[in-house]
Amino acid sequence: xxxxxxxxxxxxxxxxxxxxxxxxxxxxxxxxxxxxxxxxxxxxxxxxxxxxxxxxxxxxxxxxxxxxxxxxxxxxxxxxxxxxxxxxxxxxxxxxxxxxxxxxxxxxxxxxxxxxxxxxxxxxxxxxxxxxxxxxxxxxxxxxxxxxxxxxxxxxxxxxxxxxxxxxxxxxxxxxxxxxxxxxxxxxxxxxxxxxxxxxxxxxxxxxxxxxxxxxxxxxxxxxxxxxxxxxxxxxxxxxxxxxxxxxxxxxxxxxxxxxxxxxxxxxxxxxxxxxxxxxxxxxxxxxxxxxxxxxxxxxxxxxxxxxxxxxxxxxxxxxxxxxxxxxxxxxxxxxxxxxxxxxxxxxxxxxxxxxxxxxxxxxxxxxxxxxxxxxxxxxxxxxxxxxxxxxxxxxxxxxxxxxxxxxxxxxxxxxxxxxxxxxxxxxxxxxxxxxxxxxxxxxxxx
Length: 447
Prior knowledge:
Elements: E1 3-7, E2 27-31, E3 33-37, E4 40-50, E5 54-68, E6 71-87, E7 92-101, E8 106-117, E9 121-131, E10 137-150, E11 154-163, E12 168-172, E13 179-182, E14 188-191, E15 193-197, E16 202-215, E17 218-230, E18 235-239, E19 242-245, E20 250-254, E21 257-263, E22 266-281, E23 287-300, E24 305-310, E25 315-319, E26 322-326, E27 328-336, E28 339-355, E29 369-379, E30 384-388, E31 395-399, E32 404-408, E33 410-415, E34 419-424, H1 433-443
Antiparallel strand pairs: 1-2, 2-4, 3-4, 4-5, 5-6, 6-7, 7-8, 8-9, 9-10, 10-11, 11-12, 11-13, 12-15, 13-14, 14-16, 15-16, 16-17, 17-18, 17-19, 18-21, 19-20, 20-22, 21-22, 22-23, 23-24, 23-25, 24-27, 25-26, 26-28, 27-28, 28-29, 29-30, 29-31, 30-33, 31-32, 33-34
């Protein structure tokens, strides 16, 4: 039958006062068989060791005592086979074997694996727990084949995880390797270091690269100096030298921040702040157009729309037709065979166009054609620009080399097999003086 032995301070028994000054705690030991051998006690069958930090149960164990003055103190407790440790903070650990050094406030565990379960699950090859005199955990170090999992949020793996006792867990890889983490949202990231902020429910990933799923079945590569995963809101934010790229859609290079917001498992929004360079690709993988942005970008995947608003410098749209500048840009797109394809591009407010001879021509090179408008709409399928004025405004088009001047409420510009410019509405082929001055002022040239 189970024997229960209770040991109080100053009594020579299996249990004695723990090696913590001023602690008169009562220890309780249960076991089917107890064998005494000097300062060592061996226990077999349904072993349970209860004290302030935790309850330790196993199939077998040993307890070693040492004498300090007139007292016998429990110095070391070893346990093995079907070990369960129930912590006072409600965490539960399962392992094969372990040892508690009560004089050093330290518990060492071994197993394949050691498994810790609280809000998240942690498994590893070895684990060391350290605690203070109030029996509060100050550090947990898990080493070897470390896995950390919240089944609803993420799975992570690395070589070592360190809990600092204040809500932070740092996951580290082996030398010259990286940590890995994935989420149910289709996010797969590797990083040099992963920090779990358990109090604020955030995960910080340093020097990251990996992939996310913008559209079901369509992974998109990401990398950044730092990534932050907000578990509560389901938001991934990339910070510092971030790149988001897909070879058949587009790439974004950003020095501010890029955030992805999910609704269940589907991407709902992407927001971008700061300086960005966007390159959009065609179906053949070639460059379709470029965007240079100093401002805020919002991709609303529900509406299938990309919205950009400038902060300081104007938005620059560039393709083989030339360069177009504006204050706001809206791109409507569609999903075709799991690919994102733009259907309409619209630039608004203070729009200006510089037409160039070829794709390789620099914007700083000679540009023979200029246009001013309130709004530009571009349709990628037809590659035709629709320039228009608003509230009585007019489109101004100027071919400086051929001295062609067009002033009209609307203008169509195409450069497919041949270049065509067509004015619509009240068309004039000579500028008024203030119109020519406006062209010269906006494009900074004389003559």
